[in-house]
Every structure is written in structure tokens, then in C-alpha cells.
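User: My instructor asked us to take a sequence, write out its structure as C-alpha cells, and then describe one feature of it. I'm not sure where to start. Here is the sequence I was given:
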Amino acid sequence: MAAKKACESFSKSLIEDVHKWGCMKQTGVSLRHMMEFGSKPTDRNLLISGQFLHKELPIRIARRAIELDTLPYGLSEKPATLKVRDWYLDSFRDLRSFPEIKDINDEKEFTQMIKAIKVRHNNVVPTMALGVQQLKKGMDPKIVYEDLDEIHQFLDRFYLSRIGIRMLIGQHVKLHKPNPAPHVVGCIHTKMSPVEVAKNASEAARAICLREYGSAPDINIYGDPSFTFPYVPTHLQLMVFELVKNSLRAVQERFMYSDKVAPPVRIIVAEGIEDVTIKISDEGGGIKRSGLPKIFTYLYSTAKNPLDEHTDLGTDDRITMAGYGYGIPISRLYAKYFGGDLQVISMEGYGTDAYLHLSRLGDSQEPLP
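Assistant: Let's start with the prediction itself. The C-alpha cells for your sequence are:
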């Protein structure tokens, strides 16, 4: 069944409300603020946090719902895009119909509701990727994908906003956990060892390489395992996993039929005063200079696309070695979310170095698209 236009499946007053809230100002928070505020999850603090989200989340969700309805090249009309837009409108309606949070019982109910919203949006990234794929299918093959600038910019804003929404919900929900582990404040680890996280992420990436190719290059990690700083381990895990996975794939494919031993992928963790930098180096042959800008776009992947119209996103949780081309651009957004960045430098014919910069100070406001 084709998805209906928003005005058909949602009331006129709801759509008007979305436009009203979409014009309101968003309020950014910093890692440090989340950490300090969450270090004492008293009933009073949880109530304040719930009240803040009750007002903040509809603003952020409304902005994205409006944008999903006004995309260029007919992307808004694609079935997968309509599905995502409906999730945003449903979540907006749930938030707006929830009464004012006056006491801790209201707050507990609200927490259950936003938990359900987070689950509803679990498959936004692959579903949106499917929408872009549906768009590409109907496009003139002569169109250069890098020229579709508005779509790249929209997806950057959209996914960055999604990271923020999920971080705010995840942080609030996790503050309810009784007896948290030492040094853990919600999703944040106040003494996270980047070397440890890099080790776990690279082991997971290597296991996938082994499964897919039957062998995998070694990974050597350099850095002080006892060095720690406050960060969100799941974010770092995701970024390192994606970068290492790409490096392993490049090296594996370059040396698969060679009699030479595949050189290891090297991970170097360096601590600066302002930044923690993680460099991931491989000798996988590098990327052509003309191809470098493409790796940060959402319409490009050197690998075969694992998504198709019939992918059941509810059940298919296999992580393939090469995805729908979103690993690198989304990793850069995760880095930028807390004031960092991701740079990729390549030597064609030799290999690639990815530099992941993370802010050590935790005081930059989340960027609000």
C-alpha cells in the first residue's frame, strides 16, 4: 500500500502544530553539562530532565518532519521517505499529547514513552538509505551524485539531528538505571580508555572480515591503555568499527591473491591537551584523489548495496563488511556531534590514513541543524 500524504493520514491541526513547533528555537547541551547534571540522578534532577525533553524533543522532531516533506528531486514522495516521515509525525503526536510533567510518576511514564519513540526510530538510517536508493533508481544515470548537494546537506542535518535526539533520550533513560557501573553517567563513561574501546571495536570488525573472506589482516594498536577521558563509548565504538572495517576490507582485497603477507592495520591513539586523536592506517592501496570527496557522500559506495526493496529491516541485523555507503559520513557526524572531526588522507597505490579527532574537553555545544 502506498504511503499517504501527511495531510491525509494526520489531522490538519497536528500538521499546523508541527509547523508551529518547527519554528521554535532548539537548545543545545554539551557532554560536560550532561555529565555534571547526570552525576546526581535525584528525583528532582530526573524531573527537570523530563520537563526539558518534553519541550525540546517536539521542536527537534518537528523540524525534521517538515524537512522530510520538502525535499528536492521528489525524494519526499519516495515510499521509504514517507515511512520515515510518518514515524516522525507519530512521535511528535505522542510527545505533544503527553500532559505536563508535574511529578516523578509523570516523569516515569514519560520515560517509558520516549523509550518507545527511540525504538520506533531504530531503522531510520537504513530506511532513509532505501529512500535515496529509490530516488537513484529513477534518475538519469548521467547525473553526477556529488552534484546532488542539497540531498547531501539534508542527510547531514537529518542524521546529525538524529544522533542528538537519540543521545538525549538514551541519556535520560539510562539515568534511571539503579547501581550504574563505576564512572558511568547515563551513556557517558567519565574514564573511558580509547585504547580499550579501539581494541573491542577492531576485534568486532576483524571477526566480520574473517567471516566474509575466511582470513583477516592483523591489527596493531599503539597507545597508553591507562589513559582515559570522558566520552560516549558506543559512539567511539561505532566510529572505530567503521573505519577499521573499511581498512580491513581494502587490505584483504588487495592481498587476497598475493603471495605476500597482508600488512597489519595500525591504530595509534594520541592524547593532546584539547584533542584525543585516533589514527587508523592501512596499506590497502588507497583511494584515487578524485574519489576522496565521494567517501563523505551518501550516494556512493564501492561495495554492492545490501539493501533492496524487500529487505526486512525488522529482522535483518547482519552487519555486512561493506554497507550502504553510510559508515564514513555518519562516523564524521558522530565525531562532530561532540566537537570533533574525521579526516581521511589517502596515498593512491599505497594506503589510507583516517584521523579521528575527539574533543577532550567535552565543553562544545552539540551542533543543532
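For the description part of your assignment, you could build on this observation: Residues 43-68 form the longest helix (26 residues). Try explaining in your own words what that tells you about the chain.
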